[in-house]
């Protein structure tokens, strides 16, 4: 991948990150759907959606389905409308976790500095060339080759000097692609992209930026730090930094999750308080199982409610001490639900989670000279 040919800014790498880290972002291609197509040959070549059903949402979509505009988190009825031949498959999380463990084992052969973002993507710091392959590009190629050979699946990878640019790069040549952005190419590359591609800028923020005439990284680069902070508060500092490829975040090998939660979409809308409290108790039990497995400790309990018209609201309650037991966790959820009763319309989804988690600090990688 060659960097774009023009940019309003000088073509140089940020001094704070030059020759410090060699980062790979690995992202599996349509992971859940690809596992289903691998394990069931009858699904290969078909538009497949994992999840869904009568009242659900799409958890993952195959590339065949994406050609029709089907995306994850899309309501099933919308997905089916866009792709009448869409095949819905029930999720098999045990299977996905097993494949994810295989992939994680491959990563671990190349570095101990692995920061999982989900079952299907992770950052790797490969500044130390454990196998003497000579460059971060070569390490990324070796990892992708082994993933295909050992799992039958494809992965895309982005290689760069920092996490932000590596994540942008992994999406550049999907599926089954590799993109390398060297430090001297970074600002031109960022300038060429729409702001909606930037990690940390969601759809609503992208819309707000576009209303201000900021459509690309080049547009964002023209704004001063004071201008961005004036318009976006503390987030303005992040936008200013990423527009210039400044990202000093290390790869954290024991990444602390921001929250742990569970939710359920119902087959019918619930109105009665007793029904809602009953279902919330079930959701609380599922969430606490995940909290226990993650050994998470947090101070804030958050209730999520989605109404029949898809309006989504959340309510939170924070504690001075970490929430220590499932009874306290569930009681906080019931307290928050009571504040919303009686509900103005039917409820189709309830979720409960624990956030404001206690962070674990990890060591910063060493500075080494491996080529990107």
UniProtKB/TrEMBL annotation:
EC number: 2.7.7.7
Binding site for Mg(2+): 27, 120
Lineage top rank: taxon: Bacteria
Domain UmuC: from-to ranges: 23-202
Catalytic reactions on record: DNA(n) + a 2'-deoxyribonucleoside 5'-triphosphate = DNA(n+1) + diphosphate
Binding note for cofactor: Binds 2 magnesium ions per subunit.
Cofactor: Mg(2+)
Active site: 121
InterPro entries xref list: DNA/RNA_pol_sf, DNA_pol_Y-fam_lit_finger_sf, DNA_pol_Y-fam_little_finger, DNA_polymerase-Y, DNApol_IV, IMS_HHH_1, Rev_trsase/Diguanyl_cyclase, UmuC
Keyword Cell membrane: no
Main localization, broad class: cytoplasm
Site description Substrate discrimination, residues in chain: 32
Enzyme kind, highest EC tier: transferase
Keywords tagged on the record: Cytoplasm, DNA damage, DNA repair, DNA replication, DNA-binding, DNA-directed DNA polymerase, Magnesium, Metal-binding, Mutator protein, Nucleotidyltransferase, Transferase
A Pfam family hit: IMS
HAMAP family named in the record: DNApol_IV
Function: Poorly processive, error-prone DNA polymerase involved in untargeted mutagenesis. Copies undamaged DNA at stalled replication forks, which arise in vivo from mismatched or misaligned primer ends. These misaligned primers can be extended by PolIV. Exhibits no 3'-5' exonuclease (proofreading) activity. May be involved in translesional synthesis, in conjunction with the beta clamp from PolIII.
Family the UniProt entry places it in: Belongs to the DNA polymerase type-Y family.
UniProt-listed PANTHER family: DNA POLYMERASE KAPPA (PTHR11076:SF33), DNA REPAIR POLYMERASE UMUC / TRANSFERASE FAMILY MEMBER (PTHR11076)
Subunit structure comment from the entry: Monomer.
UniProt name for this protein: DNA polymerase IV
Naturally occurring in which organism (per UniProt): Sphingomonas astaxanthinifaciens DSM 22298
